[in-house]
Amino acid sequence: MTDKEILFRKKISNYYIILIGMIGWGFIFYSIPYATFTEKPIVLLLLMILMLLSEYFQIPLFSIRMFSTMTFPILFVMNAYFGIHTALVVFAFVLIFESFHHKRSLPSTIFNIAQYTISLVGADWLIKIGLSNYSLAFPYENVLIIFSFTALYFFINNVTNDLLFYIRPLPFTTGEWKDKALQEWVIATMSIILLVFLDTYTSYLPENIIDFTIILFLSIWIVITMTISILTKARIEKKRLNALSILSTELNRNNTNDLNEKKNLLADTFNANAFVLLAKENHSWKLLLKDGQVNSEVAWSDDMELYLEEIPEMTIVTGKDLEKLPSNTIFNKMILSQIFSPLIMDNEKVGMLIVGRVSAIGFSFDEIRSLTVLSNVLASTLKTRSLLLENEKLLIVEERSRIARDIHDGIGQSLAGIVFKMESSLRRKNENKGDILNHQIEQWIEQLRESLKELRQSIYSLRTCPVEQYGLKRAIQEKIRKTEEEGIAKITFSQKGEPYALGYQIEKVIYDIFRESLQNSVKHAKAKKIDVMLKYGREQTMIKIKDDGIGFSLYDKLISGQSEPHFGILTMNELAHKFGAKLEIDSAEGKGTEIRLGIRHFSKEEKA
C-alpha cells in the first residue's frame, strides 16, 4: 500500500469516525435531560462501580492486541431498571473515565463511546418495535427479549467496528477477524446465560431481595472477570518474558542472517504496530530487525544518523513533529507516534530501538516502563554480541596464523625436504649414471602422502561450519535431513529445555562430534535407527547420539584410533577435554552405541 493510498484511507476513516461520533454523541446529549438518578440511587451507584471495575479489568481472550470487557450484563440490567437514557449517560461517563485512565486518543474515545451508544440505542429501539407487534406469554417473552437484545447489541457493535477496520489503512487479517468474532460470541453467550439465570432465579424470590440478589450475582460475575483478566495478563507477561529470553539468545549469535525469522519474538515482547532494531558497529548503524508498518527500503541519511547519535534518552515523538524527523523515512504514513529508545551499556550507545504506533496518543506509563526493561536487556545483549564478534575476529586471526605456521613448519618443510632428496638423488644418478632405488621412491611417496594428509586437515579447518550459518539446532537438523535422504537409517531428533547462547566455538565442537558420531553410526555401525537428543540443562548442555548398530569394542577402537586419520575417538576426546566437556561412549559388539557429550556453562573458553 502506497503512502497516497494510506492517506486516502485515513481521510475516509476519519470521516467515518466523525459520522459515528455525531450520531452516538447526539443520542447521549439528547438523553442527559431525561436521565434519572434519584430512583434507587444505591443500586445505580453499585451498578456503576461494577461497570467501572469491568471496564478497568479488560480481558484479552484470544489476542493480546484485542481486549474485551464483560460489561454488557450490567448495562442490560441498568437499562431494565432505569431506562435507556440513564443507562446511556452512566455508560458514557464510565467509558470516558476508562479512556482517560488508559490514555486513549480523543478520536478513539469519541468513536468507542459512540459505537456502544448506537449499539445500545439500536438494540433497544428494535426490541420495542418487535414487542409492539408481537406478544408472548411469560416467561418466554423475557428469555426472547434477553436473547434478541444481546444478539442485536453485539451485531450492531461488531458491524460498526468491522466497517472501520475495513476502511482504515491498518491491515486487519481474516484470522484477526475470526479471533475477534469468536471473542465477542463467547462474551455474548456467557451474558445470555447469566441474564437468563438471573431472570429465572429472581422470579421465584420475594420482591424485597431481588435487588440485592442481582447485585450479588453481578458482583460474583465481576470477581470472575477480574480473576480471568489477572491470570490472562500474567500468562501474557510470561509469554513476553519468554520471548525476550529467546530473542536475547538469538541476538547473541554471531550470525544474524536468520534473525528475520525471529522478529515475531520482539513483537511479542512489546505490543506495537512497527519496530526497528538498530545496532551500532564500527561507528555506523546496522539494521538488525524490522517488522510491521516499515518501508520496504529504509532510507539512511547522514541527518538521520546524526539524529540517532544525538538522542540521549528515551524520546517520544507524535503529531506534526514526526514530519520534522529524518527518521520518518523508516515507517510509512500509518505510524502517528514513535518512541526512540537508545540502547546504552557502560556509557556506550550500542544500538537503538524505534517503536511505532498508529495511535497519535503515544505510549502509556506502563508501556514506557516495559519498553525501558526491554531496552536494557537488548543493550546488554547487543554489547555481549559485539564482544563475541570481536572475540571471533581475534579467534579467526589466531586460527589463520596457526594454519600458516602449520603449513610452513609442517607441509612446507616436508615438501622442501622431499624436493631436496629428489634433487640429490638426481644429481648422484647423473654423476654416477646409476638408477634411483625403489625404496627411495617409496619413501618419497609415503612422505607425500603424509603431506597430503596434513594439507587436507588444514583445508578442513578453513571450511565454514554450518553452525556459523544456521545455529546449532538448525545445523543438526540440516545434517540429519541430508543423511536421511540417503535412505540408510531413520533418524529422530529432539530438543529439551530452553535454548541459550553457548558461543560459536562450543557449538562447533558439539556439532563436529555429533556429525562424526552420526557418520560412524551410518557407515561403520550399519545402524537402521538413530536417536539424537540436544538438551539445555541448568548446569550443562548435552547432546546424545544413540544407534542400534553392530557396536564395537572400545578398547580395540582406541588402539586403532592411534593410526586413524582426522577424527577418531581420541581426537573427539581431546576436543571435548579442551573445552572442559565430558565425552562418554557406551558400546559393545552387537548392542549398538551411545555417545554423550556434556559441556558445562562455565567452560574453559568462557573463563578465558
UniProtKB/TrEMBL annotation:
Keywords tagged on the record: Kinase, Membrane, Transferase, Transmembrane, Transmembrane helix, Two-component regulatory system
Source superkingdom: Bacteria
Membrane-crossing residue ranges in chain numbering: 12-30, 42-62, 74-97, 143-164, 185-204, 210-231
Residue ranges annotated for the Histidine kinase/HSP90-like ATPase domain, each copy included: 505-603
EC code(s) of this entry: 2.7.13.3
Catalytic activity: ATP + protein L-histidine = ADP + protein N-phospho-L-histidine
Pfam families: HATPase_c, HisKA_3
Gene Ontology CC entries for this record: membrane
Protein name (record): histidine kinase
